[in-house]
Specification:
Length: 383
């Protein structure tokens, strides 16, 4: 009997996990609240509410181990499930990363620098927080925010009313946090994996570009020095060990004046690690499965250099990507909708010059010059 992996959440991450585990002979059962979750196109899917114990019980009976493609599964549901079947990452890690305040407090405890932050529970508390941190700043929901949603940027003290108007109602439900706005030079992420036995591996550091709070492009390896990489990896490792974390996760970092500030941790495979499907010896998806199953972890060594381009809202034409020698196309099988992640492409090459050339061709063919330009600039700067 082959092993069945249960995945809570049936989006593109579950879909790519399923694809990665097929050669390992794995079977799956995905649970999602939506009937058209895209992993359900080729993986058995149970449509159900994560808070429904009967649905969770049926799910637990059908799987050998459970994991997530979605970090906002209620922590109590993860706890309930963990009493019936092994759940990785553990519910404590999931709960902590669901709350920006708890997460940042852990980073501080571990000596990891973060932007200034203050918990906000009222209009007066917001004013006091702005007085303390200064503007510009970002008001964020503590829970349930993703891809820049649930955020309001305050340019000056005059924006306090507008910020409260936009998010104040959520202070009593999901909580709010005010963060200092970081004028970073670059955004980086460490995608790493920790096994059931504590073995820790990481992929090369990735540089990321966001547009309107949503990831637009990722470049691996990031063009940073070894000392910065070592520091970023040490932070990721410290977090994973303190949470007894099992599986893949990403630590998002801002780099300002050569210093790293931690933004947040995603307790799952991450968009900034999608390039690893073609660009690394073992992808983040396969290593996540190996980790939760207690199998030996695969090498995270890169195969050349890689750039991932996200397709948001709708897919462009595939042919210009497919024409590239190192071009790889990923269509998540979703319908078009503004702001929705519907697919990505990875370009892989053996040198920075080749990768820059490939990006240039694709950018021109798809009229996406603005999306590829910052990546080409980094590649040209150090090729
Ligand atoms: P988040 O949902 O916290 O990952 O935020 C999404 C994106 O918004 C980040 O990747 C940054 O590009 C930007 N952002 C978030 N927080 C800050 C901050 N404190 N300072 C500057 N930019 C930020």
């Amino acid at each position: 009997m082959s092993t069945t992996i249960g995945i809570l959440g049936g989006g593109q991450l579950a879909r790519m996990l399923a694809l990665a585990g097929a050669p390992l002979g794995l079977r799956y059962r995905v649970m999602d609240s939506s009937t058209d979750a895209c992993a359900g196109q080729f993986v058995p899917m149970q449509v159900g509410d994560y808070r429904d114990e009967a649905a969770l019980a049926a799910f637990a009976d059908a799987v050998d181990v459970a994991t997530f493609d979605f970090e906002n599964v209620p922590a109590e549901s993860a706890e309930w499930l963990a009493q019936r079947v092994p759940v990785f990452p553990n519910p404590r890690a999931l709960a902590l990363t669901q709350d920006r305040l708890a997460e940042k407090s852990l980073f501080v405890e571990l000596g990891i620098p973060v932007p200034p932050f203050v918990d906000v529970d009222s209009r007066d508390a917001l004013q006091a927080a702005v007085d303390r941190i200064g503007a510009p700043a970002i008001l964020k929901t503590r829970r349930l925010g993703y891809d820049g949603k649930g955020q309001f940027r305050l340019r000056s003290n005059d924006d306090v009313d507008a910020a409260w108007e936009a998010l104040g109602a959520q202070a009593s439900t999901v909580g709010l946090i005010l963060e200092g706005f970081v004028r970073f030079e670059r955004e980086l992420s460490v995608v790493a994996v920790r096994g059931r036995d504590g073995e820790f591996r990481h992929w090369p550091l990735t540089e990321n570009w966001h547009v309107d709070g949503v990831l637009s492009a990722s470049l691996a390896p990031a063009h940073v020095d070894d000392a910065l990489t070592a520091k970023a990896v040490a932070h990721a490792r410290a977090i994973a060990e303190s949470l007894d974390y099992v599986g893949v996760f990403a630590l998002e970092l801002f780099c300002r004046n050569g210093e790293l500030l931690a933004n947040e941790m995603a307790p799952r495979v991450h968009n900034s690690g999608h390039w690893s499907i073609e660009g690394a010896e073992t992808s983040q998806f396969e290593n996540h499965l190996r980790a939760v199953l207690g199998l030996p972890l695969g090498s995270t060594r890169m195969v050349g250099q890689a750039c991932m381009l996200n397709w948001i809202g709708e897919l462009p034409e595939a042919a210009p990507i497919l024409r590239e020698a190192g071009g790889h196309w990923h269509d998540y099988g979703k319908s078009s909708r503004p702001g929705r992640k519907v697919g990505h492409a990875t370009l892989r090459a053996d040198s920075t010059a080749e990768l820059a050339e490939s990006l240039h061709c694709v950018g021109e063919a798809l009229s996406r010059e603005a999306q590829v330009a910052p990546v080409i600039q980094v590649l040209k700067g150090s090729s």
